[in-house]
Amino acid sequence: MVKRNKVIKQQSCPLIDTINVISRKWLLLVLNTIGNEGKLGFNSILNSIDDISPKALSDVLKTMEEMGLVKKVIVKSSPPRVEYSLTYEGKKLRKAVIPLFKWAAEHTGHYECPILQSNKLNKEEYS
């Protein structure tokens, strides 16, 4: 007879909702892309991230805005356009995830990844 280990359910934690949101596909890449440039329009973000669909980007930006990570500004021009920038909380989160990007580069050996280059990270920083 094989004994099975029982999985102990973790107690409810208020951080779970936040962790679930920031671990969504695309969120950290969008956060990093906006943070690299300061302010970006929707199409600039879309063109900067390979394989993201306009719908996925729109959903992520809406979530990030609701979380207080990005600020959306409507620029009065013809036609009107939208610019996104990181809020103070968005900048703090981006600063916190840069070590994750560094770890991923070290773990995979992909030091030439555009994400790392845009953060001015390189292999020498790991020595």
TrEMBL record:
Instruction: Say if the entry is tagged with keyword Transcription.
Output: yes
Q: Which SUPFAM superfamilies match?
A: Winged helix' DNA-binding domain (SSF46785)
Q: Which GO terms describe its biological process?
A: regulation of DNA-templated transcription
The UniProt entry's GO CC annotations, sorted and at most eight, read: protein-DNA complex
Q: Which residues form the HTH hxlR-type domain?
A: 13-112
Q: Do the record's keywords include Transcription?
A: yes
Listed A to Z, the keywords are: DNA-binding, Transcription, Transcription regulation
Q: Which domain of life is it from?
A: Archaea
* Classification via Pfam families: HxlR (PF01638)
GO molecular function terms listed in the Swiss-Prot or TrEMBL record: DNA binding; DNA-binding transcription factor activity
Q: What PANTHER family does this protein's entry cite?
A: TRANSCRIPTIONAL REGULATOR, MARR FAMILY, TRANSCRIPTIONAL REGULATORY PROTEIN
Name this protein carries in UniProt: HTH hxlR-type domain-containing protein
The opening ranks of the lineage are: Archaea, Thermoproteota, Thermoprotei, Sulfolobales, Sulfolobaceae
